[in-house]
Design brief:
Strand content: 15-25%
Strand order of the largest sheet: 1-2-3
Largest sheet: 3 strands, antiparallel
């Protein structure tokens, strides 16, 4: 993916984040994640019914990388079975940790393929995804 396309995808998801805004609904599980080293401080909600991710919502304060990555991955996992959503997140983690990953599966998330080269930004690019991963596990309970 060309650098200008990556930047355009990231900026689009930052300026027009998908799934932004929390919902007051007790069926949604929620996780609050905050970084100790930057401004990223977000809450992520998830609704899982019948093993399907029905909705993901987030809100808070975050940098471009934080909001864009959360927007992209949340959009990708809505409508998927829990295990499919977990696989997308697993592949995303592999990519940002400079490990082998399935490029085709990650679609727009490939915009973060060079994040592994910016160690100080990996936290920004995973704070919302960490919350989603935790919520997928909590939804088993």
């Amino acid at each position: 993916m060309q650098d200008d396309i990556k930047r355009a995808i990231i900026m689009d998801h930052y300026q027009n984040p998908r799934n932004k805004g929390l919902i007051d609904d007790e069926r949604y599980l929620q996780v609050h994640n905050a970084s100790q080293s930057c401004i990223d401080d977000i809450k992520v909600q998830m609704l899982v019914e019948n093993d399907i991710v029905k909705d993901v919502r987030f809100d808070g304060v975050g940098c471009t990388i934080c909001f864009a990555s959360t927007s992209i991955i949340s959009s990708m996992i809505i409508g998927l079975k829990r295990d499919e959503a977990k696989e997308i997140i697993r592949q995303y983690y592999a990519m940002v940790n400079d490990e082998e990953y399935d490029e085709d599966l990650l679609e727009e998330a490939n915009a973060f393929e060079t994040l592994s080269k910016q160690a100080n930004r990996i936290k920004c690019g995973t704070i919302g995804i960490n919350a989603m991963s935790e919520l997928l596990e909590k939804s088993y309970e």
